[in-house]
Amino acid sequence: MSGEFNKFFVEGMACLGAGIGMIAGMGPGMGQGYAAGQGASAVGRNPGARGSVMTTMLLGQAVAETTGLYSLVVAIILIFANPYTK
Amino acid sequence: MDNSLDLGINGYYHFELFGKTFWLTNTHISIIIIVSVITILAILANRVIKKADPAKKPGKAMNVIELVVEAIDSITRSNMGDKHFFGFCNYIGTLMIFLVLSNTVGVFGLRPPTADYGITLGLALITFFLIHINGFRYQKMKHLTELFHPIPLTPINIIGELATPVSMSLRLFGNILSGTIIMALIYGLLPKFMLLFWPGVLHIYFDLFSGAIQAFVFCMLTMVFISKNFDD
What we know:
heterodimer, A: 4 helices, about 0% strand
């Protein structure tokens, strides 16, 4: 009886934790927006360098996205492959 | 969980080998399809190249092949320099073709193989070994001693080196898996009449755009990390 209660409690808390953990998506959003704004102003100053500015901006944005993806992976593990409810 | 939600990896067939159970999952099926498509395209391209006559003007298929090869060569040359690019453009080209095909295969209803952590970790480990083999080749023992360069920071340097394959593999895996999950939620949870047009728009973003960007970023980071260790 109490073991079953604990299982459901742990599952619900894991879903709550996954939702709270995805607040980490805020940081990469701000960083990517800043990078895109700087890229737009760079293209405005020097339209000839559009290709290389775009490449550098996309590369930097993809690297900045990593921390948000860590929290996504943690959330997915908490929901679908939770080690504590096995 | 509801049966119409298709989020995870489904096994279709299993067999026993050495006392362990092995599953044939939908990731295996889509990777077999992708590899056979790439092999057939490579055989056709080889036949076109063998039949090409340098004295006459090139045909349509020859033009497409030259376009792909020259694009990959110019990306590799601009990132790794004129001296070293020729040894790496074959690997980068293979990686690019495989990743573009396997990230965008969700458009055809298959599960993208890169949404499975085993495949992205394997690709990132290849990059890890390429970085360090080339580091020892071009910088000799200096590649090892620069880990201890400020001596108090040695553990952080070691962790930083080990974090490279983890972050590269998790970046590719997380991007493709999030696209797969969002598409599965849209197909599984909305009523049927909502599914007429606009999942196509989301397919363009999550499968085609995001998949192509991530394939490009993976190749780009591989080239940047390897060429960091060149001596000139």
